[in-house]
Every structure is written in C-alpha cells, then in structure tokens.
Amino acid sequence: MTSFASDVAPLFRDQDVAAMTFMFDLHDYDDVRDNADDILEAVVAGTMPCDESWSDAKVEVFRAWVDEGFPA
C-alpha cells in the first residue's frame, strides 16, 4: 500500500511545490488529496511538472495512491 508521506510527497520536487503554490501546496496531504484528479490528469498528460514529464513509474505510484483511497 502506498502512503502520502513515504511515496507521494517525495514525488514532488521543491521546485514543483514552489511553482504550484498559486493553486495548492503539493506537500500538504489535504491539498493533494482534494486536487488528486487534476494532478493525475496533468502528470498523465505530461503537463505537470512543467519542465519535464514524470516517468511511468512515478505516475503509477500516484495512481495507486488515488486508487487505494489516499492513504496518509
């Protein structure tokens, strides 16, 4: 089972967190959970983060966290 603290939060680099502060805090569990569908859509499309696409492995970690019901 994935968890936000050990699996999801580390996916977001400091520059990703800084770039997205106008929308939400990528290191905050509630913000990421509440915006998970939009975040997943963006990382699948390769539009987030803005400077490089996530690997399939990273996308699958995030997708698993969503599918598992957002474990903390």
Rg of Cα set: 11 Å
Unreliable runs: none
Describe the global form: globular
**What kind of oligomer do you see?**
single chain
Proportion of strand residues: under 5%
Helix content: 40-55%
Q: For the report, how would you describe the main beta sheet?
A: none
Structure summary, number of beta strands: 0
Put simply, the count of helices is 5
How are helices and strands ordered from N to C? HHHHH
What is the count of distinct domains? 1
Head-to-tail CA distance between termini:
10 Å
Computed structural class: mainly alpha
Q: Calculate the mean pLDDT score and round it.
A: 96
Question: What would you say this structure looks like, in words?
Answer:
With 72 residues, this protein is mainly alpha-helical. It has one domain (4-67). Helix content is 54%, strand content 0%. It contains 5 helices and no strands. Helix 4 runs antiparallel to helix 5 (56-67). The termini are close together. The model has no long low-confidence stretch (mean pLDDT 96).
Keywords:
72 residues, mainly alpha, 5 helices, 54% helix
Write the layout of secondary structure elements.
Layout: H1 4-8, H2 14-19, H3 29-34, H4 36-45, H5 56-67
Helix pairs in contact: 4-5
What is the gist of this entry?
This protein has 72 residues and is an all-alpha fold. The protein has one domain (4-67). It is built from five helices and no strands.
